[in-house]
Design goal:
With 71 residues, the protein is mostly helical. The chain has 3 helices and no strands. α1 packs across α2. The model has no long low-confidence stretch (mean pLDDT 86).
Length: 71
């Protein structure tokens, strides 16, 4: 009799893709937490492609406070 609790063994965890690794790295680098941080990075990647420098530039721009222009 084994002491292990039976868990679902339907599918092993998928290996991290290049995109997932990029998302994780940028979330750590810019201290983004939780679901919204992940969605923000994923949305930028979907929009600009998967080149890390381009994604990072767009992420920086997204995180900057918006300038208010007064006429």
């Amino acid at each position: 009799m084994s002491t292990e609790t039976p868990t679902k063994t339907s599918d092993p965890p998928k290996p991290l893709t290049k995109k997932d690794a990029l998302v994780q790295n940028l979330m750590v680098k810019y201290n983004l937490k939780g679901r919204m941080g992940k969605i923000l990075v994923m949305a930028i990647i979907d929009r600009v492609g998967e080149q890390p420098d381009v994604v990072e530039t767009n992420l920086k721009r997204a995180l900057l406070p918006k300038r208010i222009h007064h006429d």
